[in-house]
Amino acid sequence: MPGARRFEELVSWQRGHELHVEVWKVCNRPPASRDFKFRDQIRDASESVPRNVAEGFGRYGPAQFLNFLDVSRASALETKSLLKKGLAVGYWNEEEFRRLDGLATRAIQAIAKFQRYLRSPQAGRNANQNRPQGPNEYGPNSPANDPNDPNDPNDPNDPKV
């Protein structure tokens, strides 16, 4: 089975992104929107979840990727803690809290499952087998490595843009 070619394909990134977007939305409404320190803190914690999955994806070894997933998982746990604080001080109701907390739990579970895989012997074998040979993460046979490509970032017909 081929691995992910883009970080957006990773379930751990998808769950973290979903969590962050929903946290962002609830923090746009008062009273959370008026508590700037809290709002910024929970937004930063929740944004760190998919951000670190994406950054880890840019690394080629499972050990490096695991370090970024550790940070991502910790940020999801920080988000859960801040969600509890938001409930306690009345920034959202119990129903919203359960929904958001469930999203955070799903993100943590996806990250933990991915971490278990990256610690497996199979992950090391796959990493060595699929290590890119060309100048970018997509490998030597990728259209991104076509030497005849004019590399025009404004070309609307270019599928790589």
Order of helices and strands: HHHHH
CATH T-level fold name: de novo design (two linked rop proteins)
Number of helices: 5
Percent of residues in β-strands: under 5%
Helix content percent band: 55-70%
CATH superfamily: 23S rRNA-intervening sequence
* Number of extended strands: 0
Ends distance: 26 Å
Structural domain count: 1
Sheet having the most strands? none
The averaged pLDDT comes out at: 84
List keywords for this structure.
de novo design (two linked rop proteins), single chain, mainly alpha, 5 helices, elongated, 161 residues, 61% helix
Would you kindly provide a written description of the structure presented here, covering whatever features stand out?
With 161 residues, the chain is an all-alpha fold. It has a single domain (7-126), classed as de novo design (two linked rop proteins) (Up-down Bundle). Helix content is 61%, strand content 0%. The model is unreliable at 138-142 (pLDDT under 50).
